[in-house]
Amino acid sequence: MLGFIITAASLSSLSLLFSHASAIPVKRAVSGPVVIADFPDPSIIKIQDTWYAFATQPNFNGNIHIQIASSKDFSAWTVMSGADALPNMPSWVNTTSGNGLTWAPDVTQRDDGSFVMYYSAVTNTAGEGRLHCVGAATASSVTGPYAAVGNGPFVCPTDQGGAIDASGFRDQDRTRYVVYKVDGNAIGHGGSCNNGVAPIVPTPIMLQQVAEDGITKVGGPTQLLTNDASDGPVVEAPSMMRSPDGTYYLFFSSNCYATPDYDVAYATAFAPTGPFTKYGPLLKTGTYNLNGPGGADVDQDGKHMLFHANYGSGRAMYTAEIAVSGNLVTA
Ligand SMILES: *[C@@H]1O[C@H](CO)[C@@H](O)[C@H](O)[C@H]1NC(C)=O
To answer: Is this model's pTM higher than 0.70 or not?
Structure first.
């Protein structure tokens, strides 16, 4: 297999893509699984000489809300066995069912050196014990333990299905944002991911500016993308980065995570608020022999990415080293 992937072009960008392709070094950039235990929706942050990965509550131990793994070289990863980055749930979380079903954490460092974690958990404010919302928690050490901020969620549009998959982004000018998914398929009409039957419910990816604390909202949210016919029922798992030339890359997954159509797709823009143009999958079933890759998070260096793919009976963590050139992303 070629070491670069030409799957991402819209017709209008083909000439741009081919003019860049010859400059892309050919190498195998995806590795894994690097964590074989069920370790879905990993997020990435590098602190000094160590990479940290945070993942969704595992199937094998529902008492752990947020898993942690680390690596010195981005190659060999060690799970902190039994560790829970978020041991105590705030009162807005319904822990009756599956300990809150805690999903898709993301850790960001603040300018004062402390850390903010965004996570998704089942809210009890909707009264039905099934809709997720996004919470925020803080810690002085990257591995936690993280303590919930206040008694309420950070983002919780239950009338639209709730919210999940929040991810922090600090722009070059130090402006901070959080991207997240409105979890519309949670109130969908059945089928794949409960959103494959018309009328399809929107699952927009939103951008919320926040203050330096990562939590205080500045203005209201902006919609960056939503699920259209090319995405199957869902877009989710957003992660944003900026390249040195000023292009903004929004990685996301389309289709349902429980199907082979799940992927790591991306869109680009010249401002964090968009408008974003979608460029199809970077990783999909078959790429590097992956099975249902998705849930990616890119490091703020714009080069290192974590994602999960189906492996055995769970979702294992993989790594990717990516390169960008204009509207082309390669792995
Ligand atoms: C909490 O979740 C349980 C189990 O799903 C559900 O029966 C209960 O109604 C939920 N409680 C609230 C306040 O939503």
So the answer is: yes
Ligand 1 centroid to residue 102 C-alpha, Å: 15
Please state the domain count of the chain.
1
The set of catalytic residues is 41, 236
Does 94 contact ligand 1 (Cβ within 6 A)? yes
Site to substitute for ligand 1 among 101, 125, 128, 131, most atoms within 8 A of C-beta? 128
Atom of ligand 1 nearest to the CA of 127: 14
**CA 49 – ligand 1 centroid, Å:** 43
Closest Cα partner for 249 from 295, 321, 288, 300?
300
Residue 126 belongs to domain with CATH number: 2.115.10.20
Q: Are 95 and 155 in contact (CB under 8 A)?
A: no
Nearest ligand 1 atom to the CA of 130 is: 5
Q: What is the 130 CA–ligand 1 centroid distance (Å)?
A: 7
Task: Give the domain range for residue 155.
Answer: 5-330
Measured over the CA atoms of residue 91, residue 93, residue 99 and residue 104, the dihedral's sign is: negative
Atom of ligand 1 nearest to the CA of 94: 1
State which of 89, 92, 96 you would mutate to test the pocket of ligand 1, scoring each by most atoms of that ligand within 8 A of its C-beta.
96
Q: For every one of its 331 residues, what pLDDT tens digit does the chain have, with 9 covering 90 and above?
A: 333 333 333 333 333 444 444 455 445 699 999 999 999 999 999 999 999 999 999 988 889 999 999 999 999 999 999 999 999 999 999 998 777 799 999 999 999 999 999 999 999 877 777 899 999 999 999 999 999 998 899 999 999 999 999 999 999 999 999 999 999 999 999 999 999 999 999 999 999 999 999 999 999 999 999 999 999 999 999 999 999 999 999 999 999 999 999 999 999 999 999 999 999 899 999 999 999 999 999 999 999 999 999 999 999 999 999 999 999 999 9
